[in-house]
Amino acid sequence: MAEPRLLRPGDEAALDRFLSTHADSSMFLRSNARAAGLMDRGEPLQATYVAALQSSRMVGVVAHCWNGMVLVQAPAHAAELARDAVRRSRRAVTGFSGPWTQVVAARAALGLDAAPAVQDSRDDLYALDLDRLVLPAPLASGVVRCRHPEPGELELLVQWRASFAVESLGATDGPDLRRASQADVELQHARRADWVLVHNTTPVAYSVFNAMLPQMVQIGGVWTPAELRGRGYARALVAGSLVAAREQGVRRAVLFANPANAAARAAYLAIGFEIVGDYGLVLLAPSGNPMRP
Q1: Whether pLDDT at 20 is above 60
Q2: Which of 46, 97, 209, 259 is the most buried (most CB within 10 A)?
Q3: In 37-153, which residue ranges form alpha helices assigned H by DSSP?
Q4: How far lies 17's CA from each of 13, 20, 208, 224, 273, in Å?
């Protein structure tokens, strides 16, 4: 039988040793724990972490985050750990993220399998060793450039971030979304995790590293405005950000994307990514989120 245990400061090394054996699908857990530690005061990136131990060896972990998301990496214990993490955190559940079957198990264990969701997807999980990165011709030739955004561009990126949330995550546009988008853009900019692709002097695409480790990054929020699509900007942006990351010592990148998005699939495969598994993302509708201990 596995023994559940609340993780505390001092458990970081053991947690990362376990998660590193599931590295491609554990980036949110590993990055958040590294950035914010294992205390949970409800601050950004913090979470309540509960692990399953067998013979003192960690075999699973679930974290209930400051923003309500339940992150899972528990191949055999997702249901029990999800219940324990939410019981301990005493905050509402807003969604789930992690390997698909574990997301399904955790959601059912919390009685939320029938709760309405604005996003409920079984995505493809992509991975790339950066020594195999293929540079698109416009990036290699200098026709387009990838760089961190400048302060004067952040207002535009807030608009783009909101548009991404509406189109890709099922969000509802309005003042709340604009505030959330502004907070997200500012956080990513402060972390230097944001990237724009520039054609001449004009930004044409935007993405972020939504999880970062010294040797590994996870790409998210890739966005090209509708009127600029079909020109290869997304693949050039992702490749350009990874060139910069590689120069800083990063060796591997991952991302997840909806299998129905044929354009995204073609773009990622073209620069060297391979599909290595699946990944679940569930974002509950605000009216369908009754789970609060």
Answers
A1: yes
A2: 209
A3: 78-89, 100-109, 137-141
A4: 6, 5, 26, 37, 25
